[in-house]
Amino acid sequence: MFAFVATSSIVGDSVVKGIAALILGLGIATIGIDPTTGVERATLGVQELFDGISLVTVTVAILALGEVFYVASRIRRDPTVRAMKTTGRPWLSPAEFKEAAPAWARGTAIGLPFGVIPVGGSEVPTFMAYSLERRLDRRRKEPRFGRGAIRGLAAPEAAGNATTGTAMGALLALGLPVSATAAIMLAAFRQYGLQPGPLLFDRAPDLVWSLLASFFVAMIVLLIINLPFAQLWAKLLLIPAPYLYGGIAVFCGLGVYALSNSTFDLLMLLFIALIGFAMRRHDMPLAPLMIGMVLGPLAETSLRDALLSSAGDYGVLVASPITWLLYGVLLIVVLFTLRARVRQRTSQDI
């Protein structure tokens, strides 16, 4: 509930559009066979939908192919979406470092708590950090978003990195997988007879400290690899727009087809991409849809488990001090969001 409401109210400029996108994501997540009762849901009798719609298909359609349709449709109208020439250095200047430092701090502060909150990974704090920087940029005398704002990149990356690090700590110390990646690692630990948690540091200290040391080694290796190749990857923007968008569309189709070897999934990819295009066209945020798609099955399963354990008593959802705390934090987030919206509308009226 915290992830659903917080994402819908914070990400995007309209709460109504955010909730609509969330409901759409939850609706897509419910398509298929009910895992508990075995009843068909929203399949329209199509056998290919009995297993539901793949998260990979939705992700590629919404975030990649739908974005290609949107950018390609506005390439002649909006000059800001044209590819910019790549110039610069493989490192930050002192002025750029000073510009990015506050965004790094804000992104890290946003990402750290989400490392122990099961909201599906770093997607939520990443979008929240970007949305915050975009709003702060609007208050500046010379807004930079849309013309190469370094804060728009620094804050989301810092939020994602902070969430990933905290999530790994929660996995090792508490045995709590709060993202898909952490869940996969938890399964790998169990395959080797290891149970992440407080006792893991005593039972397998060599493994734990070697894993932590590998993180530092990986950061250094990635830095060495990315510094000389960053400008090379940036030169992809110099490819003519029709070839670039056509190539992206082809790879989107190849990726989905290679996953399922099904023509139906290609048609579904195109259909959902058109939905993503319509959402971008009407300024509807994409993050709530993805969050609803990722967390919808988890929320449904958790709700059913809670009701089964309480013999159908909905009071179990508010019977714990932990739930009171989470609802209180959620209420504070909503109130702050409403306060910011009221201030924004008041300033526009003035």
UniProtKB/TrEMBL annotation:
<feature type="transmembrane region" description="Helical">
    <location>
        <begin position="170"/>
        <end position="189"/>
    </location>
</feature>
<keyword id="KW-1133">Transmembrane helix</keyword>
<feature type="transmembrane region" description="Helical">
    <location>
        <begin position="286"/>
        <end position="303"/>
    </location>
</feature>
<feature type="transmembrane region" description="Helical">
    <location>
        <begin position="315"/>
        <end position="338"/>
    </location>
</feature>
<feature type="transmembrane region" description="Helical">
    <location>
        <begin position="53"/>
        <end position="72"/>
    </location>
</feature>
<dbReference type="InterPro" id="IPR002823">
    <property type="entry name" value="DUF112_TM"/>
</dbReference>
<feature type="domain" description="DUF112">
    <location>
        <begin position="1"/>
        <end position="291"/>
    </location>
</feature>
<feature type="transmembrane region" description="Helical">
    <location>
        <begin position="236"/>
        <end position="257"/>
    </location>
</feature>
<feature type="transmembrane region" description="Helical">
    <location>
        <begin position="209"/>
        <end position="229"/>
    </location>
</feature>
<protein>
    <recommendedName>
        <fullName>DUF112 domain-containing protein</fullName>
    </recommendedName>
</protein>
<feature type="transmembrane region" description="Helical">
    <location>
        <begin position="263"/>
        <end position="279"/>
    </location>
</feature>
<keyword id="KW-0472">Membrane</keyword>
<keyword id="KW-0812">Transmembrane</keyword>
<feature type="transmembrane region" description="Helical">
    <location>
        <begin position="15"/>
        <end position="33"/>
    </location>
</feature>
<dbReference type="Pfam" id="PF01970">
    <property type="entry name" value="TctA"/>
</dbReference>
